Amino acid sequence: MPDQSTRTVLERFPAGGPRGSWPADEYAAQQQAQGQPARVVMDLRTDSFIVIADSPAT
């Protein structure tokens, strides 16, 4: 059965950040600490990292 969830984009970060800097991961961790089920995905088309939250479809 296909996944019946919707994705909400919480924030976008450019992929070319300084070496050793992980702003998308840090942002996702902050959201998770607040109870928001956030994760980072790569958008190859725009060369950016996107923090998204999955929520069940209503």
Provide a descriptive summary of the structure in words.
This protein has 1 helix and 3 strands. It has 58 residues and is of the alpha+beta class. It starts with a strand and ends with a strand.
Q: Provide the spatial order of strands within the biggest beta sheet.
A: 1-3-2
Number of strands: 3
Report the order of strands and helices: EHEE
- Span of the ends, CA to CA: 16 Å
How large is the radius of gyration? 12 Å
Unreliable residue runs = none
User: How many DSSP helices?
Assistant: 1
Strand content bin: 35-45%
| Structural category | alpha+beta
Kindly state the mean pLDDT as a whole number?
A: 86
Main sheet characteristics? 3 strands, antiparallel
What share of the residues lie within helices? 10-25%
Task: List the quaternary state of the chains.
Answer: single chain
Instruction: Please tell me what the overall shape is.
Output: flat
Supply the key terms:
58 residues; alpha+beta; 3-stranded antiparallel β-sheet; flat
Q: Could you give a short description of this structure?
A:
The chain has one helix at 23-33; strands at residues 5-14, 38-43, 48-56. With 58 residues, the chain is of the alpha+beta class.
SSE diagram, text form:
Elements: E1 5-14, H1 23-33, E2 38-43, E3 48-56
Antiparallel strand pairs: 1-3, 2-3
